Amino acid sequence: MPYSEPVCLGLDVGGTKILAGIVSAEGKILHSQRFPMDRTSQASTLASLHAALSGFLPTWNREPPRAVGIGLPGHIDPLNGIWVQAMSLPIGQPIALAAQIQAQYGLPAALDNDVHAATLAELRWGAGREMNNFLYLNVGTGLAVGIVANSQLVRGAANYAGEIGHMRVEPDGEQCVCGQRGCLETLASGGGILAQVRKRLPETPDSTLAKMDGSKLTAKSVFQAAAETNDPLAVFVTNRAVRALGVALTNLVNLLNPEKIVYGGGVVSDGWLMAQVNDFIQANALPVARQSLTGVIPSVLNPEQVGLLGAASLAWASIEKG
Prior knowledge:
38% of the residues lie in helices and 20% in strands.
């Protein structure tokens, strides 16, 4: 029987995969499918995005989507529908992506940064239903925050607010993809944690991490080795991540005075690391800011789906604006 309620299409574009899905107005994912990402060049990245759209649309034969929302890494101009640039994907020249999608697929398209989009999903279907001022922290391959003040996403002058992954927390630390040294992302993101481990493994051949093959070595396995075996390399990398993330978030708590920090992303989804980060914040934030921070809590939205929900929330918002 055809699905008769209105639906939108979300496209969550990441560094290794693209997740496409049909999402209802209530935030229910009715159908979804993963597609590969070829990040060899700007042209191959765009070809992957179009292949995902053209491959997914025929698999949904019920109520056609009213619009498509696309969550993208990097710098986005949502007002003009332009993907300006990205560091995690080879996007060096601006792309009028919304106009391309409209012309090729006949669907109105809305774009935004992926963490901004996930924050808007929190506002629509998650934490925003219960609070007006919060931070949404996403820690995956990269790291960024969405800032919500008075129930509005803080975008900044160029829609670039929230890039704390490039906050410098160790000025003499490892070099980041942005060209600076000691950025938070090099210390506390999934990619940064694994890069630190691999850099130091030749010096620590007895580490339990050296015995793991590539598929088993993850940020979570590093945390597990630190907690369960007290492995010196795992402890060093984990403590560095806790301190770096703790310093960055303590500064944000003092600056922005949020009610809660809501976190998502695969690196922190089990809560183990964030419990230690919360202890750091409680020990170091200013008293008033600390007392009004009522929790550092996991998102109620599925971490595997929040990017897709974020993308879909862009489409729903564009429809509501008319």
